[in-house]
Write a structure and sequence with these properties.
The complex is a heterodimer of chains A (303) and B (272). Helix content of chain A is 77%, strand content 0%. By secondary structure, chain A is mainly alpha-helical. Chain A is globular and about 75 Å long. Helix content of chain B is 78%, strand content 0%. Classes of the chains: A mainly alpha (303), B mainly alpha (272). Chains A and B meet through helix 1, helix 4, helix 5, helix 6 and helix 8 of A and helix 1, helix 3, helix 4, helix 5 and helix 6 of B.
């Protein structure tokens, strides 16, 4: 009896989260794919029925025959979508590179800080991550706008004669992404830098290796797992980012997350927004699989 | 390795933290501004906070958000803990690769995709959009964050304690509740807090999955932010920041105290 209870319990441990994720994560993607093949109609829900048996078997096949790749052809015909995909990838890549450049010195400084200070520093990096994303992006509007605090400060210093236009440009998006995603970069970098044995650098320097060469030959290669994890954690969500380009980038910025949003909420074109989502997912599937592999590998190492 | 903390290290940390905290500090400071213009300082005032209590829509949204966050964080913690146990303890079962994929993918999945796909699911099964759908959506993405937090604790867990209990005849289920659960409790608590704040913060997924009557606070803030920066929004944000900060700091102090107590107990046990 007890053994049976144990067997049932262990089955349930696996089954409950498994089924939950199947129903609420995997199946929804199949529905997105299905709807991306259907046509738009003005109704609620605003797409032609896809797999429904309500009209009998013949109705089912009639519906099936209506499915098509029209929405995907539409995406390739309109330059808007292609440009939005390309500009999202470019913006995300540039922001990831800047985040790495900003995050590395911070993570490195933390890893070399006195051991007693490290938990506090770690906590200080994590804390902004707990405060709302929306609030942190919103805070930058007040700083970056033409009559905002940054311009007031620079004018007061006398460094500029007239306000800089930063809000509603790509620069504002870069600032927003770097700022919001910085903890995601610093944490994995810190994790791999903290494990590093610094006597290696001392040895290299004793042997006459200049500090910069020692950095590239020792520190950086050892930090690569952290660099890879950090870059993926920033790049993948940044490609589909909506809040930052919407609030800081202004109306002229083209990013695919924004396109999907307005396709869905403003044009109410569910099939086309589904097609946009499917293509975005296809673009991101390689980095996402790679991220999972990296996660699984670190898990194996920790075991 | 101490003693090699160079000036460069200190400067980069200070500059980095200034970058992280200055915008938040400015936001908080300007919530106490007398003037309606957010960027012109006109003296200290708490009037925007009092103004909030007359804003019916904002209060309703806050109440919806609090309920969604409480329910979704609690369910997500249970599911996420089960998922973490599955990932660490059951290394061989059919579909394990798919399972770990489904746990890790939502961590980086763009929110617009998650939001859209969940909405289409709810429409397909005929579930009316509202409180329930937002809660289900929040459970789904935050349980994966809980799973990662709890999993890292389970990986550093000393299995010999469990083995000892089982050798003494405790059945696995009892062992789990008597040994494993108390040890991983701090991770479960921080997983719950993470799930709670994720739900509190979410704008994109809630916008897709919510319906009339279930407007959450971020959705309300977003619609007002689009109209411009106002000191009232600064005040709401300040309250949210204060709640989260107090929660996180209190949890970490409690954790630390428990850790110290545990070490003291361990030393006492060694001596006797």
């Amino acid at each position: 009896m007890k053994r049976l209870a144990t067997a049932v319990a262990s089955r349930l441990v696996i089954l409950i989260p498994y089924l939950w994720l199947l129903v609420f994560f995997l199946i929804p993607f199949l529905i997105v794919f299905k709807i991306s093949l259907s046509g738009t109609v003005i109704a609620m829900p605003p797409y032609t029925p896809v797999f429904s048996f309500s009209d009998g078997v013949s109705g089912f096949f009639a519906n099936l025959a209506q499915l098509g790749i029209d929405n995907y052809l539409w995406l390739t015909e309109d330059a808007l979508y292609v440009n939005a995909y390309i500009s999202s990838i470019v913006i995300a890549a540039v922001s990831t590179a800047i985040t790495l450049l900003v995050g590395f010195p911070i993570a490195y400084g933390m890893a070399r800080a006195p051991a007693a200070l490290r938990p506090t520093l770690l906590m200080l990096v994590i804390l902004p991550f707990w405060t709302s994303f929306l609030i942190r992006v919103y805070a930058w509007i007040g700083i970056l706008k033409p009559e905002g605090l940054l311009n007031q400060f620079l004018l007061w210093l006398g460094m500029i004669d007239e306000p800089l236009i930063i809000l509603n440009t790509h620069t504002a998006i870069f600032i927003g992404i770097v700022y919001s995603y910085l903890p995601f970069m610093v944490l994995p970098l810190y994790a791999s830098l903290e494990k590093m044995d610094y006597s290696l650098i001392e040895a290299a320097q004793d042997l006459g290796c200049p500090p910069i060469a020692a950095f590239w030959k020792i520190t950086f290669p050892l930090a690569i797992p952290g660099v890879v994890a950090g870059c993926l954690l920033v790049f993948i969500p940044a490609v589909g980012e909506f809040v930052i380009p919407d609030l800081l980038g202004g109306s002229r910025t083209l990013m695919i997350g924004k396109t999907l949003w307005s396709e869905f909420f403003n044009n109410r074109d569910w099939p086309v927004s589904s097609a946009v989502a499917v293509v975005l997912l296809l673009i991101l599937v390689v980095p996402i699989m790679y991220f999972q592999q990296v996660q699984a590998r670190t898990q194996e190492q920790d075991r | 390795m101490t003693g090699s903390w160079t000036r460069f290290n200190i400067v980069s940390i200070v500059a980095g933290f200034a970058f992280l905290y200055l915008p938040i500090v400015l936001l908080v400071v300007y919530s106490f501004n007398e003037s309606k213009l957010v960027t012109v300082w006109a003296g200290f005032s708490t009037k925007w906070y009092f103004e909030l209590f007359n804003n019916r829509g904002l209060l309703d949204a806050a109440w919806v958000t609090a309920r969604v966050a409480l329910v979704s964080a609690t369910v997500a913690t249970v599911l996420g803990t089960l998922a973490a146990l599955t990932l660490t303890r059951y290394t061989r079962f059919h579909g394990r690769v798919l399972f770990s994929g489904m746990v890790f993918a939502p961590l980086v999945m763009p929110e617009v995709i998650t939001g859209l796909s969940l909405l289409l699911l709810f429409v397909a099964i005929g579930l009316d959009r509202g409180f329930v759908t937002v809660t289900l959506a929040h459970i789904t993405f935050s349980m994966c964050f809980v799973a990662v937090v709890v999993q890292s604790r389970l990986l550093s867990f000393d299995r010999s304690l469990e083995e000892a209990a089982m050798d003494l005849g405790a059945p696995p289920v009892k062992t789990f509740f008597a040994i494993t659960l108390p040890v991983i409790m701090p991770a479960i608590v921080s997983g719950w807090m993470l799930a709670f704040t994720l739900s509190l913060d979410d704008l994109v997924i809630a916008s897709f999955t919510s319906g009339p009557g279930a407007t959450t606070l971020p959705m309300k803030i977003y619609s007002q932010v689009r109209l411009g920066v106002t000191p009232e929004i600064n005040a709401v944000c300040t309250i949210l920041i204060a709640i989260v900060t107090v929660g996180v700091v209190a949890a970490s102090i409690l954790n630390k105290r428990r850790e110290v107590q545990r070490q003291r107990d361990a030393q006492a046990a060694m001596r006797s």
